[in-house]
Design goal:
globular; 2 domains; alpha+beta; binds zinc ion; 57% helix
Length: 236
């Protein structure tokens, strides 16, 4: 993305921050100093925003590194005032992989919140330090823990471009395939052979549990999908 500063790279994935992020920092300083806060309190607010964006970067790396596990490259991750953006080269064709990639981001924030909770419990016991909606008040770590939980809830909203929306597609396709009446072996063989049709590939894979016994008798048993190179018996 143009006008972005390179912050470095993790596992070959470049991380950028867009210049508009500075507008957010400037706005935070303006609001905090305008509200009569001293420079130290205003600096703490900016530090808190940077900590949130650190968690968002880890969230995006969760998506990107899970995608990498399935052979999908991520061009880069860019931090914008509205959040992070991981640009994957493509979406996984296998709906289970797609689901894991979508869930990996929120899972990172759950792990961060859990880690902060354990730290706070060890340090303060049962009575956690107070949470405050104002970022200049309350406990820094308690606020950060709740913000991470907020990121999880917000991202799992079942709408695009949220991660919840990304989960809907594979869940719906998987459910619809499970509900479908098992096709005849001849029809499965035809689907499996149609290598230019990627849904045909995962459709065969996902439904193997219902039609496995009949499918094993057809002669295409050892044929591979030319797109993902998966072999039919892999799911048997
Ligand atoms: Zn996400």
């Amino acid at each position: 993305m143009k006008w972005s500063l390179n912050l470095g790279s993790v596992s070959g994935i470049r991380i950028y921050v867009h210049w508009t992020f500075m507008l957010l920092v400037g706005w935070i300083l303006f609001v905090q100093l305008g509200a009569g806060r001293n420079p130290l309190e205003a600096a703490r607010s900016v530090l808190f925003i940077i900590a949130i964006f650190g968690c968002i970067t880890l969230h995006e790396l969760g998506h990107a590194l899970t995608a990498k596990r399935y052979g999908i490259r991520t061009r880069d991750i860019t931090l914008l005032p509205i959040g992070g953006l991981a640009r994957l080269e493509r979406l996984p064709e296998n709906p289970t992989h797609e689901l894991w990639v979508a869930l990996a981001g929120p899972a990172v924030n759950v792990a961060i919140a859990a880690g902060l909770y354990v730290m706070l419990r060890l340090a303060y016991g049962a009575a956690l330090p107070e949470f405050a909606f104002d970022i200049a008040e309350g406990s820094f770590l308690t606020n950060l823990m709740y913000v991470n939980l907020g990121i999880v809830v917000f991202n799992l909203l079942p709408a695009f471009p949220m991660d919840g929306g990304g989960c809907c597609g594979p869940c719906w396709r998987t459910a619809s395939m499970r509900c479908r009446r098992p096709a005849s072996p001849r029809r499965w063989a035809r689907r499996w052979r149609s290598s230019s049709d990627s849904p045909g590939c995962w459709a065969g894979t996902r439904s193997c549990s219902s039609s496995r016994s009949s499918f094993t008798s057809v002669r295409t048993r050892n044929s591979a999908c030319t797109r993902c190179a998966a072999r039919w018996p892999a799911c048997a």
